[in-house]
Amino acid sequence: MKQEFELPKHVLDVVYTQTLSWFGSFYAPLLPVITTLVLFVIFEVKKFACLVNSTPGSSTIYRASRSNSMFMSVLLVSLAVAVIPWAFSISEMMPSKTCGPFRGQRSAWSVMEATFHTFPGWVKATADFCTTAAFALPLFVVLVLSLYYYYAVAAANKHMVAVLKKQLILEGHDKQFLLNRLSAFIKQQQERHKAAAAAARSIDVPPNS
Description:
Blueprint: E1 3-4, H1 7-24, H2 31-53, E2 54-55, H3 64-91, H4 108-117, H5 121-130, H6 133-204
Parallel strand pairs: 1-2
Helix pairs in contact: 1-2, 1-3
């Protein structure tokens, strides 16, 4: 017997695997490569299982846009949760004194600072400019305008969908009205034909002598 394909469960499994990869990628740099291979194999296996052993869900209807927004929000929260221990490990925790690329250093961030000071002058000047208000304020304004634009587009699309739904309902009512009028007209014509046929038969019958 085929089982129903549970889309949210499989998507959350992918999100969970991706979150674990984010958590461990700083400590195991090859972990994202391994995760990519594992997800590819899992995708092929689940695709085969979905096509052969599963049936489409009939009781629950998923809207593509709403489901995509929900899953992307969950993925964003997972990324934020994974970045917090990253930031703490890089800035505060002292690396191992016996092994690792950061041994003998106060923190991993100090190595990044020392590496940054070896860059050319124009690279450091560009990075310094990106941290000033002259760059952050226009960037913030552009982001706000972009968000407002996408919000306006989404609101316009939502209004258009509502208008089209009302138009479809009105067209359905118009079609039903026309069908009722057509049925009444056909019924009236049939009654007229029956009356005419009955009148013709009454004329053709000879009177009794």
